[in-house]
């Protein structure tokens, strides 16, 4: 094995370890934020999906979250009761329901993530535009790989 191949393998192992550590830290952060908001981890995940992807029906939300559709009823009930989402009729299909995030509570949510967001701003400031684009491309590829690995377990 050449030293370059060994060095590449070592760097890859280090990178995968760093990604696992990041995943653990983000899970801990989300758990703490959820605890402060009296929200389960899965509720926070679903709220994030609704915030990012726009109004979603329960079936689409279940697919995006990788959850059984029957599980969505309890999650959406809790989010609605907590004032995080509103259920509304789909204007294109009056029989369907869409779940819309109530933006009034976003300041509370963003405040709890402000420490991490500030830290990420500082980290990003140390990199050039091309480097950030490269890192973003890598992370998007990792997300796609994770999605594929998750689907393979179904």
Throw out a few tags for this protein.
single chain, 154 residues, mainly alpha, two-stranded antiparallel ribbon, 2 strands, globular
Short description:
The chain has about 150 residues and is mainly alpha-helical. About 75% of the residues lie in helices and about 10% in strands.
What does this structure look like?
- This protein has 154 residues and is mainly alpha-helical.
- The chain is built from 6 helices and 2 strands; from the N terminus they run H-H-H-H-E-E-H-H.
- The protein has helices at residues 3-36, 41-53, 58-65, 69-81, 106-125, 129-152, and strands at residues 85-90, 93-101.
- The longest helix has 34 residues, at 3-36.
- The model has no long low-confidence stretch (mean pLDDT 93).
SSE topology string: HHHHEEHH
Q: Spans with pLDDT under 50 lasting ≥5 residues?
A: none
Total of helices: 6
Radius of gyration: 19 Å
Q: How is this fold's topology laid out?
A:
Blueprint lengths: L2 H34 L4 H13 L4 H8 L3 H13 L3 E6 L2 E9 L4 H20 L3 H24 L2
Antiparallel strand pairs: 1-2
Helix pairs in contact: 2-4, 3-4
């Amino acid at each position: 094995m050449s030293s370059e191949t060994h060095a590449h393998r070592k760097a890859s192992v280090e990178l995968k370890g760093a990604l696992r550590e990041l995943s653990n830290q983000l899970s801990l952060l989300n758990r703490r934020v959820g605890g402060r908001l009296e929200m389960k981890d899965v509720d926070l995940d679903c709220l994030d999906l609704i915030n990012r992807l726009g109004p979603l029906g329960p079936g689409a939300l279940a697919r995006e979250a990788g959850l059984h559709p029957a599980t969505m009823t309890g999650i959406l009930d809790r989010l609605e009761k907590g004032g995080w989402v509103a259920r509304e009729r789909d204007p294109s299909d009056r029989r369907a329901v869409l779940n819309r995030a109530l933006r009034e509570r976003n300041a509370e949510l963003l405040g709890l993530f402000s420490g991490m967001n500030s830290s990420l701003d500082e980290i990003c400031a140390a990199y050039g535009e091309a480097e950030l684009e490269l890192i973003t491309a890598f992370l998007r590829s990792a997300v796609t790989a994770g999605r594929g690995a998750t689907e393979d377990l179904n």
